[in-house]
């Protein structure tokens, strides 16, 4: 399955999307030398990226009424706990716990190929139509009653 958007960093890491529906997302990667830290296990940044991407896609997947799955999301806050070193093929599973018109509250876990829990995160995401940058102009989603 392809990611619904072109995300250069995610593509560079070699992440693969395996689920994207009904408030759930699953991302996988086969660890390579470039993904490792000095202990020769997955670098924490790889795990955090997997968790972030899984949660963001879980949040976006809830907008199934819109053909492109609606607005994008940006990470507002994320807390990560690392439980054990991660090796081999990794899977991150993200779930949308609750959403409002403008915010999504999610969690995700990374498992190694033996199904051991390696890391867990919770995150808060803001739904946006566009970003306040040159890439895409700013216009955050607003409540219908706010105009």
Can you put this structure into words, describing what you see?
The protein has 147 residues and is an alpha+beta fold. The protein has one domain: Hotdog Thioesterase (Thiol Ester Dehydrase, Chain A, Roll), CATH 3.10.129. It contains two helices and six strands. The chain has a six-stranded antiparallel β-sheet, with helices on one face. The longest helix is centred in the middle third of the chain and has 18 residues, at 44-61. The N and C termini lie far apart (37 Å).
User: Could you say how many structural domains there are in total?
Assistant: 1
Subunit arrangement of the protein: single chain
| Percentage of β-strand residues | 35-45%
Uncertain residue ranges: 137-147
Continuous helix count = 2
For the largest beta sheet, what order do the strands appear in spatially? Answer: 1-2-4-5-6-3
Radius of gyration: 16 Å
3D shape: globular
- Element-by-element helix/strand order: HEEHEEEE
Distance between the termini: 37 Å
CATH architecture term: Roll
Helix content: 10-25%
- The CATH superfamily title: Hotdog Thioesterase
Mean pLDDT: 88
In CATH, the topology is named Thiol Ester Dehydrase, Chain A
Beta strand count: 6
According to CATH, what is the class?
A: Alpha Beta
Sheet with the most strands, sense and barrel status: 6 strands, antiparallel
> Pairing-aware structural class of the strands and helices?
alpha+beta
List keywords for this structure.
38% strand, alpha+beta, Thiol Ester Dehydrase, Chain A, 16% helix, globular, disordered C terminus, 147 residues, six-stranded antiparallel β-sheet
């Amino acid at each position: 399955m392809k990611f619904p958007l072109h995300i250069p960093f995610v593509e560079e890491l070699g992440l693969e999307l395996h689920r994207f529906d009904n408030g759930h997302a699953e991302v996988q990667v086969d660890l390579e030398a470039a993904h490792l830290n000095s202990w020769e296990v997955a670098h924490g940044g790889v795990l955090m990226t997997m968790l972030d991407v899984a949660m963001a896609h879980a949040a976006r997947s809830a907008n199934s009424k819109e053909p492109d799955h609606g607005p994008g999301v940006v990470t507002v806050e994320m807390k990560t706990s690392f439980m054990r070193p991660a090796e081999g093929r990794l899977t991150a599973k993200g779930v949308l716990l609750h959403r409002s018109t403008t915010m999504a509250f999610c969690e995700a876990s990374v498992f190694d190929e033996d199904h051991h829990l390696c890391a867990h995160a919770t995150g808060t995401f803001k739904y946006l139509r566009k970003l306040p940058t040159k890439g895409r102009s700013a216009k955050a989603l607003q409540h219908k009653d706010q105009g």
